[in-house]
Amino acid sequence: MPKRVLQGTVVSDANDKTVVVRVERRFTHPVMKKTVRRSKKYQAHDEANLAKIGQIVQIEECAPISKNKRWTLVTDTAAPSA
Fold first, then answer.
1. What's the distance, CA 38 to chain centroid?
2. Which pTM value belongs to this model?
3. Tens digit of pLDDT for each residue in 13-65?
4. What are the residues facing 60 on neighbouring strands?
5. What does residue 60 show for φ and ψ, rounded to 5 degrees?
6. 65 inside domain
7. Does 82 map to a domain?
8. Which residues pair with 35 in a beta bridge?
9. SS3 19
10. What domain count does the chain have?
């Protein structure tokens, strides 16, 4: 089974080898028929401490690395926005 890959924005890089990525999903509300935005934060492993706050990155599912880390950083897709 292929690993899931999600795209999101780095919201924290304070920890060593860890980044917090906010992934946003959009869906249509079943009753109101209005587009709703929901987001969730994932902790991802960043071995080289490359990602910075504001960057758009991709994370991939992996085996558990620690209590909260089940994702690893794949690549960054954009430069940080000023």
1. 13
2. 0.84
3. 999 999 999 999 999 999 999 999 999 999 999 999 999 999 999 999 999 99
4. 5, 72
5. -125, 140
6. yes
7. no
8. 28
9. strand
10. 1
Q: Would you say residue 24 lies in a domain?
A: yes
* Token duo for residue 51: 């990602």
Instruction: Give the domain CATH number at 49.
Output: 2.40.50.140
Q: Which domain holds residue 54?
A: 5-76
Q: What letter represents residue 1's amino acid?
A: M
Q: What is the pLDDT of residue 1?
A: 78
CA-CA distance, 6 to 42, in Å (whole number)? 10
pLDDT for 75 equals 72
In a domain, 81, yes or no: no
Q: Backbone phi, then psi, for 71, in 5-degree steps? A: -130, 155
Residue by residue, DSSP assigns 53-66 as TT-EEEEEE-S--S
d(CA 77, CA 52): 12
Q: What is the pLDDT of residue 2?
A: 84
Note whether 38 and 25 are within 8 A (CB): yes
Question: What is the reported pLDDT for 81?
Answer: 52
